[in-house]
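Sequence only, no structure available. Ideas?
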Amino acid sequence: MSAITTHVLDLSKGHPARGVAVKLEFHAAGGWRELADRVTDGDGRVRDLVEAGRKVEVGRYRLTFGTGDYFQSSGESCFYPEVQVLFELSDASAHYHVPLLLSPFGYSTYRGS
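Reply:
I predicted one. C-alpha cells follow.
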C-alpha cells in the first residue's frame, strides 16, 4: 500500500469524484519537488501516490487537486479552481490518508485512516 493516499468525495452529487487530477509534492531545500501526478479512479481514490513499499521522508508535503477541471467537465462552475492541502509527516513508517470533501463552493479535508 502507498504511504500516502487520498479520496475525493463530491458532496454536491453525493458520490466519489472520479477523474480529479491530483499532484503530490515534497518540500525540499530548493523548493517543491513533484513526486506523483495521478487522477482519481471510479471510487474517487488515488491509491498509488507513493510507490508500494517505498517509505516517505519526514517533512512537508502538498497535494494539489484540479477541482476546476473536474467541475467544468460536467458543465458546472466552481469557486475554487484548485485546492492545495499542505500537511506535515512526522513518522516515516506510518500510512497517511488525506481525504477531500468537495462541492463547487467549498471543501474540507482531514487526516483519515
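The helical segments are 67-72.
Hope that gets you unstuck.
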